[in-house]
Automatic annotation (TrEMBL):
Annotated protein name in UniProt: sn-glycerol-3-phosphate ABC transporter ATP-binding protein UgpC
Biological processes, Gene Ontology terms: carbohydrate transport
InterPro entries, sorted: AAA+_ATPase, ABC_transporter-like_ATP-bd, ABC_transporter-like_CS, ABC_transpr_MalK-like, ABC_transpr_MalK/UgpC-like, Mo/tungstate-bd_C_term_dom, OB_MalK-like, P-loop_NTPase
Biased composition (Acidic residues): 414-425
Keywords: ATP-binding, Cell membrane, Membrane, Nucleotide-binding, Translocase, Transport
Domain ABC transporter: 4-235
Keyword ATP-binding (UniProt): yes
GO cellular component: ATP-binding cassette (ABC) transporter complex, substrate-binding subunit-containing
GO molecular function: ABC-type transporter activity; ATP binding; ATP hydrolysis activity
Pfam family, one: OB_MalK
CDD domains: ABC_MalK_N (cd03301)
Amino acid sequence: MAAITMKNIVKRYGDGFPAVNEVSLDVRDGEFMILVGPSGCGKSTLLRMIVGLEDITSGEMLIGGKVVNKIAPRQRNLSMVFQNYALYPHLTVFENIAFPLRLAKLPNEEVKRRVTETAELLELTDHLERKPANLSGGQRQRVAMGRAIVRQADAFLFDEPLSNLDAKLRGQMRTEISRLQRRLGVTTVYVTHDQTEAMTLGDRVAVLRKGLLQQVGSPRELYEEPVNLFVAGFIGSPSMNFLPASVDGAFLETPLGRFELRDERKAAAVGARDIVLVGIRPEHFEDASLVGEEKKARGSVVRTRVDVTEWLGNEQYAYVPYEAPADVAAQLRELSRELDSDQLRTQAVVALDAGSLITPGLEAELWIDTSRIHIFDPATGDNLTRDEDRVAQLGRVAEQSRDAQRRAQRDPADDPADGAAEDTG
Ligand SMILES: Nc1ncnc2c1ncn2[C@@H]1O[C@H](COP(=O)(O)OP(=O)(O)OP(=O)(O)O)[C@@H](O)[C@H]1O
Ligand SMILES: [Mg+2]
C-alpha cells in the first residue's frame, strides 16, 4: 500500500493542448479518491500518468514517497481496471484471475491460494471453471476486478469500470467495490462521471474542469460548501439553481421574488456588489402552505407561477421558468453546456413534498430556506459565502466516519456506529 502524491502535474499532448494543468493532489495511504468532471476534463489522462501509461510533461508523481516519473509501468506495482476491460475468452474464470500471477511466474500453490481467496471475496467461487462468455455482465466485471486485486498491488486505479453495466448492476457493483476497498484498505483512485458513484464511493472527491483541479473534499463538503459555480452546478442532481439577483441593502431581488438576506456573514460576503448569482438547491424550496410558522420565519416566501410538476410518489419536482437579463442568461447557458446538463438554465427546479397540491399554471407560494443559499460572484464564479468553520467540521466528521467504516469492515464485531455519530451538529 502506498500514498500517491501529485505535484504540479502537467500533461501537454503533441498539439500543445494542456489536458492536465498544474494538478497537485495527495491521495493518502488507503484512501478511496474519486476523480470526477465532464467529458474531456483530463480524468483518464491523469490516471494514465499515475500508472505510467502516459508521460508526464512536467511536475512530480510520487508513489509511496518515491518519484516515479521515469519508472516503467511494470515497476510501479499498481493495478488498473479500464472501462473496456477484456477477459480472455478461451481461459476459465480461474485462469483469467490468475493471469497476472502466471505472468509473474508464481508457484502453482501460491496461485491457487490467492485466486481462491480473491474469488471468495468477489463471490465467484462457484464460477471458477466457467468461461467468460457464459457469465452475466456483473460477474464478468467481477472477474476483471479479481484480476486487478489478486496481484496485491500498492494501489488500485479504476477508469469508469462500471459504465458498461445497466443501472441495477451498477448499483450492486458499487456497493461491492466500496466494501471491498474498505476491507482491503488499498489506496484507490476511481474515475467516474456518475454522480451517485462520486457521492457514495469515495472518502474524498476531486473535481476537474478543463484539466484544472477545482476542489478536493468529502462528498458532503463538495455538496454543502462548493468553492465555485462549477462545483456547485456539477455536484448534485437535479443541479443547484442559479438566480441572478440585484442587491438592495439586506435584500436580494431575484426573478422569483425579493427576499431578505438575514445572515450577517453572508451579507458581509456580498460586500459592495450590485449583482450576484444566488445558488439554491432544489430541496431548499418547499410548498409554503406545508411549512410551519416557526420554520417559515427562518426563510422567505415568494409568489410565483409553476410551469410543470412531476410527481414521483416519494417526492415531487416543479419547474419554475423565469426571465433573466440577456448577459446573465448567456452565462448560465454556457455553464449548463459545460456541465453536460440538458437543463434549461432560466428555469428553477424545485423539490416539493409529495403531498404538495401546487398546480401547474397557477400562482403558488414557495418557501425558500434562505439560511442554505450560496452567493456567487458573477464575474469569477467564486462562492462568496463558503463557510470555513463548517468545512472544518465536515472534514472531521468525514474522517471519523471513514475510520469507523474501515474498522467495521476489518473486524465485523466492531460497532460501525461507534465514534461516527459525534460532531454532526
Ligand atoms: N492521445 C491524445 N492526443 C491528443 N489529445 C488527447 C489525447 N488523449 C486525450 N487527449 C485530450 O486530452 C483531454 C483530456 O482527455 P481525457 O481522456 O483525459 O478526458 P476524460 O476526462 O477522461 O474524458 P471522458 O470522461 O470522456 O473519458 C481531451 O481534451 C482530449 O481530447
Ligand atoms: Mg476518460
